[in-house]
Amino acid sequence: MTALAGALAAFGTLLATGTAALAAGADLGQAAQQATNWHAIVMFVIFVAGTLGITYWAAKRTKTAADFYAAGGGITGFQNGLAIAGDYMSAASFLGISALVYGSGYDGLIFSVGWLVGWPIILFLIAERLRNLGKYTFADVATYRLSRTPVRSFAATGALVVVIFYLIGQMVGAGQLIKLLFGMEYIYAVIIVGALMMIYVTFGGMVATTWVQIIKAALLLSGATVIAFGVMFQFNFSFEQLFARAIEVHPKHQAIMSPGTLVSNPIDAVSLGMAQMFGTAGLPHILMRFFTVPDAREARKSVFYATGFIGYFYILTFIIGFGAICLVATNPAYLDIVKGGLNLRGGNNMAAIHLSHAIGGDLFLGFISAVAFATILAVVSGLTLAGASAISHDLYASVFMHGKTTEGKEVTVSRYASLGLGVIAVLLGIVFEKQNVAFIVALTFSVAASANFPVLVLSMFWSGLTTRGAVIGGAIGLVSSVVLVVLSKTVWVQSFGYAEPIFPFAYPAIFSMPAAFFFTWLFSVLDNSPRAAKERAAFEAQSIRSETGLGAEGAAAH
Amino acid sequence: MIAATMMARRIVEGKLSNTAQNLASAEKIRNNPKFRELVSKRTRFAWTLSAIVLVMYFGFIALIAFNKALLATPLGVGINTTVGFPLGVGVILTAVILTGIYVYRANGEFDELNRQIIEESR
Questions:
Q1: Cα-to-chain-centroid distance, residue B92
Q2: Which UniProt keywords apply (chain B) (predicted)?
Q3: Among A32, A123, A256, A297, which lies 20 to 30 A Cα-Cα from A452?
């Protein structure tokens, strides 16, 4: 279980803390502040200057609500594919997966596979219907034929819970990472991330966010490609030679070539798989990206490109992890002498960073550090925009104003909401600095899989879904996933200090997701109200639009 | 002021007639056998591919949970690479290829059928 918790941390968002737990057992110590890294700072400043320039350009083009939420629907499939990849590939997956491979070998691949397999499902079942039915948020789809106020309130709550928890993980991870990479105080690192994301989102809306994500994806993919190429070059492009050397130098030897202790319990293995696969399809900031393309055709293309980029990236991180075993673990300059063993200076999340130094020296190290920072910025910007849309488009415009507001006012509310979320994210980042936030990823993906995903899928595919069923079933998924995570070892024992967890497993999805589906079904079939009859009857009209795109939101003219 | 009101009214009327037209089109689409064909073909295809991904992925998870030894088997005598590597990477590559296959058919065959349906509904 400790290994599971550690793995989770490595994956999620928590960087230094998490992998230290993985490598050293229960040590959740903070990342040590490093010497100021000038190469990294200069390159990061170039990135920030460039993206602020784009934000200025984007701000002038952002006039309507469609511009602000969906970049006017004018993003191409290829661009959106890159932006999705930029939205999804967090610094945690870059540093965390390579650190996990560095520490345990094959286990890293299990997580990579899990983070990828949600994408085909998004394409086959969700993307085109989402694009055809929705406008700015996934709640648009759920309320297409269901009652506006209750369903939007529920969907916005689900979206905000996911966004805020995800933000906590990102902010804490960002603070620790920047402290490590740039030699900057934690609090300033968190404030800089918060301030930049507020500027991108508030002024540049979806246009700026999209371009920040595209640039970040291009930088991250090219940086990771160079590292992986450098590794393979040293082993004559032979995986056999790479593996042979890794087995020789790694203390676990042959054990790194097969699944280890990471996923030991079948229930947790399946539960983690469900959370990863279906949670991906319930992340509001990912779903929102499908409204930025002109039609269903481009939406499909964007998933294909995104899946290709993300799959390629995961294969690279795997090579990087093995490369770190061979080239970093063998060089005392990178090792933590005090802790000994495989422990790296600055924690094991530094595996990819040290490897970049081993391959390309100080300059390349600076580049990869700046890329890691840019990566966090792109992810938090996407999250903030998704959260702001849930507040302005779902809660303010629909629930509170009952649709009686203007587009201009809605966008203004959205801008204030972005600022508010930025401030909240910074405060939470500071509050959670010394907390073990390893549970955050389990929570985020489990909530997305248990609350957002069932309601979204049933609203698209099941004519029998009613408002009552969606709200009660979705709420049960939301509450049960949160409560089970709190009662599990990661929170109940490690954060609250109780001796034994009440919920014996690490991941709740195997229970909370079927519960959401079951109760949504049950309360829908038991719903005999006239409203429910109307909602069932409206399914046919919905399916004509969802299948053909007739009447779907078009791209705004520019 | 008057001009603005008239413009607003024109926009509203434009939207209304657009919706009315959509309703008429929807009625024609409902009765078009090609619509049934599109929906059943695409739905079957999408769920078949989803089932492949689900079986493949949860099969992989089941191996990790119940048969680690199989994944730890080397590919041959004197070879370091174990069965687990091509399997894991294979799941990733298959997922990417299946999305490619779906997009190819959906953006070709299905979109053509969809175009005809929309055309015939006007």
A1: 18
A2: Membrane, Transmembrane, Transmembrane helix
A3: A297
Whether residue B14 is predicted with pLDDT greater than 50 in this model: the reply is no
pLDDT, position A556: 54
Q: Quick check: A392 and A417 in contact, CB under 8 A?
A: yes
The structure tokens listed for A6 are 């550690």
Contacts of B29 in chain A (CB under 8 A): 544, 548, 550
CA dist B24 to A134, A295, A534, B29, Å? 21, 22, 20, 9
Q: Is A273's Cβ below 8 Å from some Cβ in B?
A: yes
Please report the pLDDT score of residue A516 as a whole number: 97
Beta strand segments in A86-140, E? none
Q: Give a yes or no: residue A494 inside a domain.
A: no
Q: What is the pLDDT of residues A509-520, one digit of tens each?
A: 999 999 999 999
Provide the residue type at A125 as one letter. Answer: L
A349 in any annotated domain:
yes
Q: What is the DSSP string of A418-469?
A: HHHHHHHHHHHHHHTTTS--THHHHHHHHHIIIIIHHHHHHHHH-TT--HHH
In angstroms, rounded to a whole number, what is the distance separating the alpha carbons of residues A104 and A98?
A: 10
| Element of type H or E holding A161 | helix A148-182
Contact across the interface for A270 and B65, Cβ inside 8 Å: yes
Per-residue confidence (pLDDT) for residue A263, from 0 to 100: 67
Structural domain of A99: 2-437
> Count of domains in chain A?
1
Domain CATH code at residue A255: 1.20.1730.10
Name residues 253-272 of chain A within 8 A of B (Cβ): 257-259, 263, 265-266, 269-270
Q: What ipTM does the predicted assembly reach?
A: 0.88
**pLDDT for B67:** 87
Over 70: is that where the pLDDT of B65 sits? yes
Is the Cβ of B113 closer than 8 Å to some Cβ of chain A? no
Cα distances (angstroms) measured from residue B27 to each of A160, A531, A540, B20: 38, 23, 10, 11
Q: Which of A5-9, A73-77, A290-294, A351-355 has the lowest mean pLDDT?
A: A5-9
What is the reported pLDDT for A32?
A: 56
Q: What mean pLDDT is predicted for residues A330-336?
A: 88
Least confident of A70-84, A97-111, A255-269, A447-461: A255-269
Q: Mutating which of A113, A314, A317 best tests the B interface, going by the most B Cβ atoms within 10 A?
A: A113
% of chain A surpassing 70 pLDDT: 92
Query: Is A455:A473 a contact under the CB 8 Å cutoff?
Result: yes
| Chain B 61-100, residues with CB within 8 Å of chain A CB atoms | 61-62, 64-66, 68, 71-72, 74, 79-82, 84-85, 88-89, 91-93, 95-96, 98-100
Chain B CB within 8 Å of residue A303 CB: yes
Task: Note whether residue A454 is domain-resident.
Answer: no
Q: Is residue A502 part of a domain?
A: no
